[in-house]
Design a protein that fits this description.
homodimer, about 220 residues, alpha+beta, Jelly Rolls, Arc Repressor Mutant, subunit A, 4-stranded antiparallel β-sheet, DNA-binding
Chain lengths: ~220, ~220
DNA sequence: AGAAATCGGTTGAATTTTCAACAAAAGGAG
DNA sequence: CTCCTTTTGTTGAAAATTCAACCGATTTCT
């Protein structure tokens, strides 16, 4: 487990928890690590989840498929980020999205009940973890607000610009790689891929942005 | 304060807290009640918030205004519901939405710090409240997932249907009043009002729904 | 290295949405 | 009750998105 400490230290769920406590905690929590191939569905839409996941390597996505097979990407999930916690904490009988491995990845799985409910050993870290979970959920909420800000824009261009500006603001740079390919970006922005490609082309010509594959520069 | 107990008992934040503790708690938390006129901005976009709000009567909305003045309604906030908690818990320097009174309303305001951090009196309820706050935030997360499911639809009709079906599923009825007028519904679904009116008209003619003002029936 | 699959850009046509403007209906104030 | 404001429905034109199809380029796999 120790090799994952560098990731876990950055994970919101383990904030303010000392290294020396971590190993004991993980054992008490029954944490286990699993590996998934690209495209593997880690949690399936419509099913309940009792576990939360922490991405240790690779990346995943929260994905929704509708009636007609249209995909929408609700959020990207990178190294150190948690997924499934909202569903596990709210104890929903059917989760509204699937969590899909975006590339080969390792995930730490923890039964959420073990986190939230004091165990027989009367471990002392539960309160801290509940507090951390609360902060994590508050941050997730913020991300949804940002997503609404982006997708509420009516035109493809405004959505893309809102997304890129948000990215620039978060990273503090105006040159960055986004974690999506074209189709994924379209499915995140809720627009048509070909229209998105066309719009990116126009914006390049107008000198608004530079773009090469998934590398963008704001001008 | 006692006259608000019937509301507070239903509030997710006070779940599993006994009536006899409530009064003492509210005093310790420094809870105060304020009244706001219709359209009053309770929390303003761009500012930080330290307080959470609980709607005691009336209703409010979380509203975002963009560049061009386009409004989008992020969520409706009814009696017994909490607002601002995500921003206060995440300690953001600038909140991304405004909270606006949708009609005359009474709101209980509580400094979030008083909830999350143990006070000098060593009150025992903080842990329970942090737990409740966590559950509340998890439920809010779910609502965002549902909102994404609705607004990710590409057409006005599909968005409206998704919204109505969601409403029917939550209330368990296929006949209900929605909490929005036409313009508000359009701003929630992220579509044009006139187009929405036209679409509702079509769907009535096709026998898909009945609709009278804000009362809808699914057929 | 070669074949297959994926990805990204382009195009034109069809469909929708948006926009602005107007009129009818409903609701409130005096 | 009447006037004024707000809300809702309608319309037509303009603009944008979607859709399907195609092709070249890149990547992946054997």
């Amino acid at each position: 487990m120790k090799k994952y400490f560098s990731v876990l230290r950055e994970c919101a769920l383990f904030c303010d928890i000392a290294d020396e406590d971590l190993l004991r905690m993980l054992s008490c929590l029954g944490a286990r690590v699993e590996s998934f191939d690209k495209k593997y569905t880690i949690f399936a839409e419509g099913k309940p989840v009792r576990h939360i996941g922490i991405v240790l390597s690779g990346s995943a996505q929260a994905v929704q498929l509708d009636y007609y097979g249209n995909r929408s990407i609700v959020m990207g999930i990178g190294v150190g980020e948690v997924f499934g916690e909202a569903f596990a904490c709210a104890e929903v009988p059917a989760i509204p999205v699937s969590i899909v491995a975006n590339e080969p990845c390792e995930v730490m799985l923890i039964d959420c009940g073990h986190i939230l409910h004091t165990c027989a050993n009367h471990c002392s870290f539960h309160h801290q973890m509940i507090y951390n979970m609360m902060r994590d959920l508050a941050m997730k909420n913020l991300r949804f607000h940002h997503r609404v800000e982006i997708t509420s824009k009516r035109s493809t261009r405004d959505k893309l610009l809102a997304y890129l500006l948000m990215f620039a603001k978060e990273t503090g740079k105006d040159s960055f790689d986004i974690p999506f390919d074209r189709q994924e970006l379209a499915d995140f922005l809720e627009v048509d891929r070909s229209g998105l490609s066309a719009e990116i082309g126009k914006m390049k010509k107008e000198g608004l942005i530079e773009c090469n594959k998934n590398h963008f520069v704001l001008l």
